[in-house]
Amino acid sequence: MISATDISFGYDGNLVLDGVGLAAGPGEVVGLIGPNGSGKTTFLQTLYAALRPRDGLVTIDNDPVTSLSGTALARRVAVVAQETPSDLPVTVAEMVLLGRAPHRRLLTPFNREDHRTVAAALTRVGARDLADRRFATLSGGEKQRVLVARTLAQQADHLLLDEPTNHLDIRYQHEILRLVSELNVTTVVVLHDLNLASRYCDTLVMLNHGRIVSAGAPEHVLTAEAVRAVYGMHVERVYAGGYLQLIFSPIDKPSLHPSTA
Ligand code: ADP
């Protein structure tokens, strides 16, 4: 269970989160959505104590996140942040093995079970054949899948993901999010694609200018009115194959470059 209450945060005095909160129950997938600059990444970073809020409280299974040591936190929370550590001179298998570190005492070698866990994690994300490649040489999408594998190897029961579908082709976008939704791990995920968010999240939290506009079931959050107000886009909602699908079109505005004809 991840709970955040009344979180406010500012960079250099500028308030970018103003009293936001969320609750992700056991096994639930909560999607953070909102336009660029609305505060999603900042909010996510407060959930794993990478940023300390000015006000408010974040708890993991009722323990304040700031009270947990780095190792205790890493046993319970796995994170895929936006910046990928791309220039580490490690193989893919070694990168995923790093996910086992919180389970090992300092300087004890990895054992056979660690290696088995790594192989299973790579298989689950379709990256087993990449195990011996140097991580730095992978494409953006391959890196993203490997970093998700690292979180699986970490076996934490909370997962925080910042745009995990970035760089992924359409098949892996769905495969990664389906995997996450089937893991039975409490998850908060930042997503840009509202159709993916609607399909794979149990609950959505929509941010705009550092505030929560609405939160709840995807079909209640992704209304035409909210999408128009927050993104400035017209949306048509259709149900296809049992899923809500949003079809977007720009709202007509006077052209910035009026024809001279
Ligand atoms: P989102 O993830 O929704 O795009 P962010 O959380 O990255 O939004 O950013 C929210 C606001 O905070 C933006 O106005 C952004 O410019 C600002 N911001 C983000 N990171 C920093 C930083 N390190 N220093 C100063 N301002 C920042």
Automatic annotation (TrEMBL):
It comes from the Bacteria. InterPro entries: AAA+_ATPase (IPR003593), ABC_transporter-like_ATP-bd (IPR003439), ABC_transporter-like_CS (IPR017871), P-loop_NTPase (IPR027417). GO terms for molecular function: ATP binding. The keyword Nucleotide-binding applies. It holds the Pfam family ABC_tran. Keywords: ATP-binding, Nucleotide-binding. Residues 2-234 form the ABC transporter domain. PANTHER family: ABC TRANSPORTER ATP-BINDING PROTEIN, HEMIN IMPORT ATP-BINDING PROTEIN HMUV. This is ABC transporter ATP-binding protein. It comes from Arthrobacter flavus.
